């Protein structure tokens, strides 16, 4: 917090004009819970988010001028405006800390920062690793855009793809409902790519599949506005579970078949090698027989010559 406050953002700054190129500072918001550290320590960590917020604190320039006490602007819950105040570092342990790091036209936004996240934001500026992060982000963005473009041009194969996209979306799982625009973002990304005619075709295919889900009793449409809400019913969850299990079994069967084919190919090659080895062994044995017979014939010829000499 002391380092962040040394490079805190000014009260007014821009992210769009030429002056934004000089941006190299932090914006910090600290939300202090309305309970002591001892009381919070007894509460399970997963329940910390339900704690009541006592106040919001924003550090000012060189906020740690008094050691463990931070200077800044504070606004209690229910108040309208900020006022000057101080915050002891003891309150930071269970406080929610949101940090925005502005570098040029770039903005690295982190909410409810853990200690590793705060260290990451520190080294971004201190060691100038922000350049590596920008390159990484640009490459990831390009890859996602390329992947989204390919996927956008490919037609939807089944409504299972829709269910899969919805079940992997945190917002949908949290709210239990979604709009068509949210579904489109989950499937194809948050940016438009491709020709408008292609977009119209994909949009219409989404309408057909959503209507089919409603007719099958798997979803329910709420409202008649331009972008209505859709809620997944129990029958839809049942369909997704069964289809996912079916696809999983198919993949397992394909893997088994591939393993069997691989074993069969290995057996064929093993059989070929055995045949070749047997053939070579037979050839080697035939050579030994020929040598033995030649020796035997030579010995018989010698014996016949000796007999002829004796009797003549």
Describe the structure.
By secondary structure, this protein is α+β, with helices and mostly antiparallel strands. Among the domains are: 2-128, no CATH class; 154-232, Orthogonal Bundle (Arc Repressor Mutant, subunit A), CATH 1.10.10. It has helices at residues 2-6, 37-41, 115-126, 130-153, 159-167, 170-175, 180-188, 196-215, 234-311, and strands at residues 24-33, 53-59, 69-76, 83-88, 96-103, 106-110, 177-179, 219-222, 229-232. The strands form two sheets. A six-stranded antiparallel β-sheet has the order 4-3-2-1-5-6. It has a three-stranded antiparallel β-sheet with strand order 7-9-8. β8 and β9 (229-232) form a beta hairpin. It is elongated and about 145 Å long. The termini are far apart. The model has no long low-confidence stretch (mean pLDDT 82).
Please supply descriptive tags for the structure shown above.
six-stranded antiparallel sheet, 9 helices, single chain, elongated, 312 residues, alpha+beta, 9 strands
Summarize the structure.
The chain is α+β, with helices and mostly antiparallel strands.
Write the layout of secondary structure elements.
Layout lengths: L1 H5 L17 E10 L3 H5 L11 E7 L9 E8 L6 E6 L7 E8 L2 E5 L4 H12 L3 H24 L5 H9 L2 H6 L1 E3 H9 L7 H20 L3 E4 L6 E4 L1 H78 L1
Antiparallel strand pairs: 1-2, 1-5, 2-3, 3-4, 5-6, 7-9, 8-9
Which structural category do the helix and sheet elements fall into? alpha+beta
Shape: elongated
Record field, number of beta strands: 9
What's the overall average pLDDT, rounded?
82
Rg on CA atoms, Å = 38 Å
Strand order of the largest sheet: 4-3-2-1-5-6
Alpha carbon gap, first and last residue:
127 Å
Q: What's the SSE pattern?
A: HEHEEEEEHHHHEHHEEH
| Low-confidence parts | none
Percent helix: 40-55%
Number of helices: 9
Percentage of β-strand residues: 15-25%
Biggest sheet overview: 6 strands, antiparallel
